[in-house]
From TrEMBL:
Biological-process GO terms, alphabetical: proteolysis
Signal peptide: 1-17
One GO MF term: aspartic-type endopeptidase activity
Superkingdom of origin organism: Eukaryota
CDD domains hit by this protein: pepsin_like
Swiss-Prot/TrEMBL keywords: Disulfide bond, Signal
Disulfide bonds: 108-114
Pfam families found in the cross-reference section: Asp
Protein name: Peptidase A1 domain-containing protein
Family (UniProt): Belongs to the peptidase A1 family.
């Protein structure tokens, strides 16, 4: 069966307090495999490392290229664009982990075959072109069907004609339920082999990138974008939820040196991915400048990380997940059972007071630098709540089909809020700690009020309680919130 074959992580939605959270669920291994061919290649770092062009936020060109993002409760980041002539306003999920841009037709919404917020009316546009090529985007849970189309898209001050997207005219029940009229679809910004991509039209799985459209039309000086994700502090929707800057870097939202890393070649160079040197549980008294390393996690296998703004949490292989949570409890001085993973919910629950004792997590990525840098996540970065309980924003996920990567992490919004990230289609990813960034909502209000009473408590013991851990098998070529 021929599809456009973008297989996403298994997702569903769970209503927690006033926000909608999409969570990873178990899927059988027999689901649709990845369609793209995986190549076992390795890129030398020195050939790809270069400094990114810096555009200051005060520069007039950068103002034109900057677009604000809406943060919906720390679980999704959305950009407002206009499609068609006259313009029709859409709210699209910004996803660095997938390629296709799509929205549904208004007819599909009216007939209740689709469940987007507004959708698009092609009959009302003078510039719409239906390529009549059927397209099916298949997810681990859920899929949509539609047609490849071309249209005028307005992104901030930029206008691009004949931009390729999928106009959906059907969503299965799983995807229908996930959408819940929260947005109008998705804009895919993944790597797809960057400037080396086959753009001749012979690859049915390739979707032209908006960034490359802008670059080829000389609207930006280089095929490059940067991303800043802001936290909500209280789990609500905020319009100042972040920024995507096309063609440069906003100095306001980064601190320290921007370190560049080569895009790893796993998965046919489809993803914005990095080779991992080490994942560690850091000592509690670690500092950002001189972190103190603790236990090494998942050291037995070569590991990679996919940077995916379309995933809310962190995800790691199920075996690594167990090792991580066990050692996190020990290193943090928690008692047996203080962190409990539940396969029914897919979440690891932790007492909200004890959560504040959790040790930092450190991620070090492979580079040509002789002084590797470790990016730390503190407890308030990777703990979330449902209004009364606290959970680790980390889940088990076994990606199948990426044969050249034994161990793959997915670093979603939890990680990307901590850093300012840049994406160069010439083959590099840049990371620096973010600045002027609010935290996400980590603790319920009741816990915040009583937290000070628990300061100084010393928890002893070790171990971890699981209510049963199962392997989460999901298939992913695009990771979609």
């Amino acid at each position: 069966m021929k599809t456009c074959s973008l297989v996403v992580a298994c997702l569903t939605q769970l209503t927690l307090a006033s926000t909608t959270v999409r969570l990873l669920l178990e899927e059988p291994r027999s689901e649709t495999p990845l369609s793209f061919r995986v190549r076992n290649t390795h890129t030398r770092y020195a050939d790809l490392l270069h400094e990114a062009e810096i555009i200051d936020a005060s520069d007039s060109a950068s103002k034109d290229a900057r677009t604000a993002l809406e943060n919906q409760g720390d679980f999704g980041y959305f950009v407002s664009v206009d499609l068609g002539t006259p313009a029709q306003a859409l709210k699209l999920h910004v996803d660095t982990g997938s390629a296709a841009t799509w929205t549904s037709s208004k007819d599909c919404i009216r007939s209740k075959r689709c469940n987007e917020l507004n959708g698009f009316d092609p009959s009302a546009s003078l510039t719409f072109v239906n390529e009549t090529q059927p397209s099916t985007i298949t997810y681990g849970v859920g899929k949509l069907k539609g047609y490849r189309s071309r249209e005028l898209i307005n992104w901030g001050s930029f206008s691009v004609s004949n931009f390729t997207f999928v106009l959906a005219d059907y969503e299965d029940q799983a995807l229908f339920d996930q959408q819940a009229k929260m947005n109008d679809g998705l804009v895919g910004l993944t790597y797809q082999n960057g400037m080396k991509a086959d753009t001749t039209g012979t690859n049915p799985d390739y979707y032209p990138s908006l960034i490359l459209h802008l670059f080829s039309n000389n609207l930006i000086e280089r095929p490059f974008f940067s991303l800043w994700l802001n936290g909500s502090t209280d789990g609500t929707t905020i319009t100042s939820g972040g920024e995507i800057l096309l063609g440069g870097i906003n100095q306001r939202y980064k601190t320290g040196e921007l370190k560049n890393y080569p895009v790893a070649t796993i998965g046919g160079s489809y993803y914005w991915s990095l080779e991992i040197d080490a994942v560690r549980i850091m000592k509690k008294d670690s500092l950002l400048i001189q972190p103190i390393p603790g236990p090494l996690i998942g050291a037995s296998q070569k590991s990679f990380a996919i940077l995916d703004s379309g995933t809310s949490f962190l995800a790691c292989p199920s075996k690594v997940f167990r090792e991580l949570v066990v050692n996190l409890a020990i290193q943090s001085g928690l008692q047996e059972g203080d962190i409990a993973y539940n396969t029914a919910t897919g979440l690891a629950k932790v007492d909200c007071i004890l959560a504040q004792s959790l040790s930092p997590l450190g991620f070090t990525f492979a580079s040509a630098s002789s002084t590797p840098f470790t990016y730390q996540l503190f407890w308030e970065d990777y703990v979330v709540n449902d209004g009364s309980n606290c959970y680790l924003a980390i889940q088990p996920l076994d990606l199948v089909g990426i044969k050249d990567a034994a161990s793959v992490w997915v670093l979603g919004a939890v990680f990307l809020r901590r850093v300012y990230s840049t994406y160069d289609f010439n083959g590099t990813i840049g990371l620096a700690y973010s600045s002027n960034t609010n935290k996400a909502s980590s603790l319920p209000q009741d816990t915040l009020r009583v937290a000070s009473k628990s300061e100084g408590q010393n928890q002893s013991g070790s171990g971890i309680g699981f209510s049963g851990i199962g392997t989460l098998l999901c298939l992913a070529a695009a990771l979609f919130l």
